[in-house]
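Here is the promised in-class demo. Please do not try to memorize the tokens; focus on the logic of going from shape to residues.
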């Protein structure tokens, strides 16, 4: 029974005796009158299909349910996906938080990236995606994927060496990321300090100028000390850095 049929049935009930029953029993209380009316309506209109808030359910026609949802604004809404924020740190180099699968697809197909460098470890609490799974999807979208995993609370010199080797081995544009972006910011801080041959403190300021801030104090101090330690040896000439190794050579970034 659709809405029109229900309305006509209700009019038929009122014309045939509904009103007469109310007139003949004026002593009834208002609540009793409502119950009397409801009992008479149930014999004309099935209870499960009466119009109203509770009636819009499995027994209601699809058109009626759609109208009800639009009228009361009950149609489910989907949240717009938050876009991945990337901080540009130089030509073909950017960093940020760990991407989702949709972000990886956008990086490959829309942003034109060629590589990902992941600093996360396996099984981190709250991880967006396992590094192994991310590597599989990166290869599916024809991206080069490298891992330089280390724990944020216990960085080591070897972790910096591994990151710098991974960074110079992948084609650019490259996106460096960690779960919250703090490890990525610290490693990029080291990279900027070595690339520009500036102190750790100056590297922090240079990174700030690019919008990159490592919010974990212990990790930032570690990155500063690594920059100061690695530029302690003066370059031989303007074409070389740190003990005479050319800047384009992979071993330059791994020297202590």
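The designed amino acids, position by position:
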């Amino acid at each position: 029974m659709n809405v029109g049929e229900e309305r006509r049935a209700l009019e038929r009930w009122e014309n045939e005796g509904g009103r007469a029953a109310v007139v003949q029993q004026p002593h009834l209380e208002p609540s009793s009158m409502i119950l009397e009316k409801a009992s008479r309506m149930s014999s004309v209109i099935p209870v499960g299909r009466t119009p109203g808030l509770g009636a819009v359910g499995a027994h209601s026609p699809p058109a009626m349910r759609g109208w009800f949802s639009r009228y009361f604004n009950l149609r489910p809404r989907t949240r717009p996906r938050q876009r991945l924020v990337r901080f540009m740190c130089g030509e073909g180099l950017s960093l940020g938080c760990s991407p989702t699968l949709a972000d990886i697809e956008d990086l490959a197909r829309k942003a034109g990236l060629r590589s990902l460098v992941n600093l996360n470890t396996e099984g981190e609490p709250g991880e967006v995606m396992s590094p192994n799974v991310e590597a599989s999807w990166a290869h599916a979208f024809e991206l080069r994927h490298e891992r330089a995993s280390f724990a944020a609370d216990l960085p080591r010199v070897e972790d910096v060496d591994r990151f710098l080797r991974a960074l110079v081995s992948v084609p650019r544009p490259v996106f460096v990321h960690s779960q919250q972006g703090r490890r990525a910011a610290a490693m990029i801080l080291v990279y900027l300090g070595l690339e520009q041959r500036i102190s750790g403190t100056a590297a922090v300021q240079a990174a700030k100028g690019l919008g990159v801030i490592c919010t974990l104090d212990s990790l930032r101090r570690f990155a500063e000390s690594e920059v100061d330690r690695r530029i302690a040896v003066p370059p031989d000439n303007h074409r070389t850095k740190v003990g005479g190794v050319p800047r384009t050579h992979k071993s330059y970034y791994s020297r202590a």
